Amino acid sequence: MIQSYSARHMAMTTAGALPPLECWEWLVDAALREDIGSGDATSQALLGAGEIGSASVVARQPLVIAGLPLAQTVFERCFVRFEYRVEDGMKVDAGAELGRVTGLAAAILTAERTALNFLQRLCGVATYTARFTAAIAGTRARICDTRKTTPGWRVLEKYAVRCGGGVNHRMGLFDGILIKDNHIASVGSIKCAVTRAREHAPFGLRVQVEVESLADAREAVDAGADALLADNQTPEALTEIVRWIAGRVPVEATGGVTLDNVRAYAETGVDRISIGALTHSAPAADLSLEWDAASKP
User: Which residues contact 112 (CB under 8 A, 6 or more apart)?
Assistant: First the structure.
């Protein structure tokens, strides 16, 4: 039942470019194989081969949209047409119709769960991110993600963060240098770690250093760090670090940030606040596929 999808698109949305199809189509195929297996026994038993159906994908809560092209790909793999009414990055109210599906009734029901799984996860990340970005409105800070992503889903979850108004940290270990506490412990000091990074790292990669005090921040900047990651600092301690830095390098706060305290962190003057929970703890969005009564066989 799974269709070969030959298009190579990069959809433009209000969140920018969706990652290219080749980055995530394997995940769609794996998810369908996992769910369908040898066939959809329920739909095949209940519905005739030629029966046509239609349905709407509906938001059951206010949310930020992310993942519509993935849902479309899932449906199209099962020879079902999906036309969405909104775009990724848009905010919608409860009851909003995100899109309509038409095609063979059995195929719609076969694709339903997989399509909704992608939408619920990605809309959930986007919606949760939007709550953080709204909480710091009016400050200079930006909300950003981390590498604490679902294995295999990273490009998608980071895309969903952008849909929610956040920004991405490095994509992986390959596109940025972040000297963390264990790196420092392994080489002996912040100064030594920064020096080695400068000597051996690929040209052009920014050197960011995790610091746990104002003394660490001073050592890192004096050693030539391009940016700081202040880990598990109180807003008061961060204010002191930001004041001493005085704009010489960007300062990012991380660790222990919640919706209840993110405003306090933003008001310290940091440039970014990275939050692992955006991708590892975002609640799934509440969505459903509502069958059209008129399409019943």
Answer: 55, 289
Task: Write the CATH number of the domain with boundaries 12-134+283-295.
Answer: 3.90.1170.20
The CA angle 90-168-278, to the nearest 5 degrees, is: 70
From 100, 131, 147, 148, active-site residue: 148
Residue 216, number of CB atoms within 10 A of its CB: 19
Helix (H) or strand (E) holding 51: none
pLDDT tens digits for range 111-126: 999 999 999 999 999 9
Give the pLDDT of residue 294: 64
**How much is the pTM?**
0.93
180 is catalytic: yes
Question: Which homologous superfamily does the CATH classification assign to the domain defined by 138-280?
Answer: Aldolase class I (3.20.20.70)
- DSSP H/E element including 187: helix 181-187
Catalytic residue among 40, 76, 210, 219: 210
Q: Is 91 a catalytic residue?
A: no
Choose the catalytic residue: 29, 97, 212, 231.
231
Is 292 tagged catalytic? no
